Amino acid sequence: MAVIKIEFNAESTTEDVLRDVDLSGKRVLITGVSAGLGVETARAVAAHGATVVGTARDLSKAGKVLEAYERLAIEVLECDLASLASVRACADAFKNRGDQFDVIMANAGVMNCPFSHTEDGFEMQFGTNHLGHFVLVNRIAPLIVDGGRVVVLSSSAHRASDINLDDPGFQQTPYDPFSAYGRSKTANVLFAVELDRRLRERSIRATALHPGGIHTELMRHTTPDMLQQMAARSGRNVRDSKVAQVKSVEQGAATTVWAAFLAKAEDVGGRFCEDCQVAEVKEAGGGVRSYALDPARAAALWLKSEEMVEEHF
To answer: What is the pTM (predicted TM-score) of this model?
Structure first.
């Protein structure tokens, strides 16, 4: 009997992707399960049999949100990605418990926030979105089973800003919220590229993705005018009516579960995905920018990140 290959797209939902998929026996770590995509991803994965361990900065908030899914195997541990002390304590807790994971989903993040700093003095968006995950994932990398995957949520905003290794904290350049967000999202892609290279010998593959435009709490600092500017700077045609369209959270989380469980490891490893497929490398318009997949740039960011967090992996 011929195998029918199912094609997914921008309108596919988590249930479309995971239909008839049994994740029993899988253990999945998801950061940021107190709102939006993190909650939907945790629900979808757990509903299909996986055991989910989530992290959240605010355990009370996460607990209230997840009450609706109390019958599912979802546990939450505290982890504030804007505090390396909190990140390291969370990683230590996982190691002390002897947890192992088939998939790690680096989902949590902040967006377009006013200029501020993490507990450790890093620019908030770079520090939270990239450095927090950099330390957490590296510290628990030995807990990922051979053949596992790491899925890092980036954004189309990576098209707006390359990283700046000489001035990651905007000490020499004027701060712009969306530029800072774009830098952090490019860093997410580059992190996945280098992590994929380093863990490939254990058949662990890492990938980054754009979930799509979704109205969640992540958008709290984003005005309508800023949204239009973001669309233009991210290579989207602002005159196209589709720019105004947004995905539901079920559609937004679909690419995450597709990349984690359905896509072939060799197809997505070290690559960038969107709309449940691997994105094309493009220097204008949609797709993924070549600088975000540059191995040399990824290696340089890794070294800079180690220097900033004062820890080597």
So the answer is: 0.91
- For the sheet with 205-210, list strands across it: 74-78, 51-56, 27-31, 101-106, 144-153, 205-210, 272-274, 277-278
Rounded Cα distance between 161 and 184, Å, is 9
Task: Say whether 234 is catalytic.
Answer: no
Catalytic annotation present for 154: yes
Catalytic residue among 185, 234, 247, 305: 185
d(Cα 112, Cα 179) in Å, to the nearest integer? 8
Q: Where are the domains of the chain?
A: 14-308
Residues 97-149 have pLDDT tens digits of 999 999 999 999 999 999 999 999 999 999 999 999 999 999 999 999 999 99
Give the pair of three-digit tokens for residue 311. 């820890």
Cα–Cα distance for residue pair 306/309, rounded to 1 Å:
5
Give the CATH number of domain 14-308; options: 3.40.50.300, 2.60.120.10, 3.40.50.150, 3.40.50.720.
3.40.50.720
What CA–CA distance (Å, rounded) separates 199 from 177?
Answer: 33
Choosing from 86, 179, 181, 234, which is the catalytic residue?
181
Catalytic residue flag (residue 291): no
Convert the pLDDT of each residue in 179-210 to its tens digit. 999 999 999 999 999 999 999 999 999 999 99
